[in-house]
Design a protein that fits this description.
It is a single chain. Helix content is 47%, strand content 17%. By secondary structure, it is α/β, with parallel strands linked by helices. The chain folds into 2 domains: 142 residues, Rossmann fold, CATH 3.40.50.1860; 109 residues, 3-Layer(aba) Sandwich (Rossmann fold), CATH 3.40.50.1860. Strand 1, helix 1 and strand 2 form a beta-alpha-beta unit. The chain is globular, with a radius of gyration of 17 Å.
């Protein structure tokens, strides 16, 4: 089976890494909309148009399922995509529901990191309203972190300074869970675990997304240490340097830490 994953840039590779681990015999096409990255700072009409154009291109390929591996693109366009195409289309959702459950046990709050556009759209606000009965969820936009990621900027000192600036004035003792609500953000999971207080747990939506993919395509999601399928990278501007960047970013995810 050939499965496509789509994001504005390299963020969705965090989802691809999880999919490769759990579906080691499947083939994957990864498409990045490099003409328009990042999505999180664009307007809603722009993102809808960019997503439709990219998915139209992807659908020219022989694929059996599509993962929109971008929270912003999912929020902006997933329902229209599902009405347009007749293959399984799986989107991303910030892992607010499991985070709220965990926070209740700890008696603390939840902090959601995401892009500005994701946090402003009804898909996110409706999700929070549906699951946050005790009003424990706070949100913080981190648009600059997407740019850091796209530049493959993983220097601990630089990232630590950035988070210290963003989190100044925040009492982290009130929080038990931080949701990484953009697929670019898990690149910084290991760094954040070193920077943040040890009682804070980091979660993202990759695991749940891949579980949903498996249920829709009828595959058994069995974790594996090896991968025997084929991966093809594409990008909307056709830049060979970006294709190389995607390969290097995927290697970073696979060798530096486990999501």
């Amino acid at each position: 089976m050939r499965i496509a994953l789509f994001d504005s840039g390299i963020g969705g590779l965090t989802v691809l890494t999880e999919a490769m681990r759990r579906l080691p015999k499947e083939d994957f096409l990864y498409f990045a909309d490099t003409l328009h990255v990042p999505y999180g700072t664009k307007t809603l009409p722009e993102v809808k148009r960019f997503v439709q154009e990219s998915v139209n291109t992807i659908m020219q390929e022989e694929i059996q399922a599509l993962v929109v591996a971008c929270n912003t693109a999912t929020s902006a366009a997933i329902e229209e995509l599902r009405r347009t195409y007749d293959i399984p289309i799986i989107g991303m959702e910030p892992a607010v529901k499991p985070a709220v459950k965990r926070s209740q046990a700890a008696g603390k709050r939840v902090l959601v990191f995401a892009t500005s556009l994701t946090l402003s759209l009804s898909k996110y606000t409706d999700l929070v309203a549906r699951v946050d009965d005790h009003k424990v969820v706070d949100s913080m936009p981190l648009p600059e972190l997407v740019q850091y990621c796209e530049q493959l900027q993983f220097d601990r000192d630089e990232i630590e300074r950035y988070f210290n600036r963003k989190l100044s004035g925040i009492d982290l003792a009130q929080y038990s869970t931080i949701v990484l609500g953009c697929t670019h953000f898990p690149y910084y999971k290991s760094l954040l675990q070193q920077i943040l207080p040890p009682h804070i747990e980091l979660i993202d939506g990759s695991h749940g997304t891949v579980e949903r993919l498996c249920s829709l395509i009828g595959c058994s999601a069995t974790p594996s240490k090896g991968y025997s399928g084929h991966i093809e990278f594409r990008c909307s501007d056709g830049n060979p340097a970006y294709l190389d960047k995607m390969a290097r970013a995927l290697d970073y995810l696979q060798t530096q830490y486990t999501l």
